[in-house]
Fold this sequence. Notes:
The complex is a heterodimer of chains A (223) and B (236). Chain A is mostly helical. Chain A has one domain (2-222). Helices cover 87% and strands 0% of the residues of chain A. Chain A has helices spanning 2-21, 24-43, 47-78, 82-87, 93-123, 130-154, 160-187, 192-222. The longest helix of chain A is centred in the N-terminal third of the chain and has 32 residues, at 47-78. Chain A starts with a helix and ends with a helix. The model of chain A has no long low-confidence stretch (mean pLDDT 91). With 236 residues, chain B is α/β, with parallel strands linked by helices. Chain B folds into 2 domains: 1-82 and 158-167 and 184-236, Rossmann fold (3-Layer(aba) Sandwich), CATH 3.40.50; 89-155, no CATH class. In chain B, the strands form 2 sheets. A 6-stranded mixed sheet of chain B has the order 6-7-8-3-9-10, with helices on both faces. In chain B, a hairpin with a 2-residue loop joins strand 4 (62-67) and strand 5 (70-71). Chain A binds chain B through residues 6, 9-10, 13, 16-17, 20-21, 76, 79-82, 84-92, 222, and chain B through 55-59, 77-78, 80-81, 83, 85, 87-97, 100, 104-105, 107-109, 134, 150.
Amino acid sequence: MKExxxxxxxxxxxxxxxxxxxEVLTSIVVFAILVIVIFNFAFGGDERAVKTVAPGIxxxxxxxxxxxxxxxxxxxxxxxxxxxxxxxxxxxxEAIYLGKFAGNLFFILLIQLVVxxxxxxxxxxxxxxxxxxxxxxxxxxxxxxVGTLFSAMAVNTRARELILPVLFFPIVTPVIIAAVNASLxxxxxxxxxAITDWLGIIAAFFVIFFVxxxxxxxxxxxx
Amino acid sequence: xxxxxxxxxxxxxxxxFFGSFKxxxxxxxxxxxxxxxxxxxxxxxGKTTLLKILSTVMKPSNGEVFFNGxxxxxxxxxxxxxxxxxxxxxxxxxxxxxxxxxxFYGRLYNIDNRSQRIKELLERLNLKARMHDKVSTFSRGMQxxxxxxxxxxxxxxIVLLDEPESGLDIKALDTLxxxxxxxxRTIVFTHHSLERGFATSSRVAVLxxxxxxxxxxxxxxxxxxxxxxxxxxxxx
Lengths: 223, 236
């Protein structure tokens, strides 16, 4: 309970920082919308092609905009060594991970909240089904779990903007593939039973990487 | 708080390696409750590494540290509740206001009457008029004052300060030491000026190449300290 309270305080601090600056989220949302618009120009005319490529475009957009959001997550902690300020507070290292994870999850979901309606409108696709929301939520949990850990690792390197995607994408590929395939089945009108295997992969990915990240986070920030 | 006869800080055989480089070499030291220990040393002597280990940010390669009888490796969260730290960097979020920063740390430390305590400290450190301004608009000295407010917010019994006076004007220096000494605190700080550090401390130590080269039980004289420091520079 103490850990969750501390995590909540850290996550709300991240949100407050973004409210005060309104810099990063705006840029990321604009970037995401631009990506969608570019793909819309490329594939927008062909209705059959759109259905096939739409899930790939959508998840590529989520992945690229997500990584921009993750990149800034620990950058703000690096400035003025704020991460040490957290480390000398009477909270566990795990609470810091949970707080940063919750903050990252919130920002990625917020980006998706803007991107999905725009994507739906431009590609003329209905994306507001229960199945699609479930796939998006679960895949984003996996994204944020791995991304938070790698963001903490990358922030101490010189080429951090480059290192994070290099570390992050190979690990997160299974969840992107599963999410793309599940989204394709949903767009083809298949029911919930058709996506259960993919959902299983996404859920397993989240559980494994969340637990592993939670356990190793203390070693990452202490060294 | 520990017992009166119990050391506030007890360091036993502390060693820290960075690769094959020995930054701290078998350091043992006792700081009694209420003492103000000034640590001097040349660049790279191990002062900051020692403070980082004491503040639980870094783990030692060998050795143990006890705060009021508690092993900091085993009871780190409990120990940190009574620990205040002023580092080279401020630990402040530049895009948040002074008040937001202190409120954030106040929530982490679960401080009672948070708002009142924050305003009281900001008033003492002459920052109240700017409390709703972003820290990024503050001068270096103002950021240092706010970092001191952050470190003392939860009324810690043990305070570790790494070059705390850098960037502070004379008035802020007076306020800093008044704030530090008005409660019965154990203080460990590093300083680049022998004169200034000697004047504000009740005990002194000189670190040289990761070892304690000089640390008398009583304060000793300034000339002895000066001699020990000069010898440590020659040994570099």
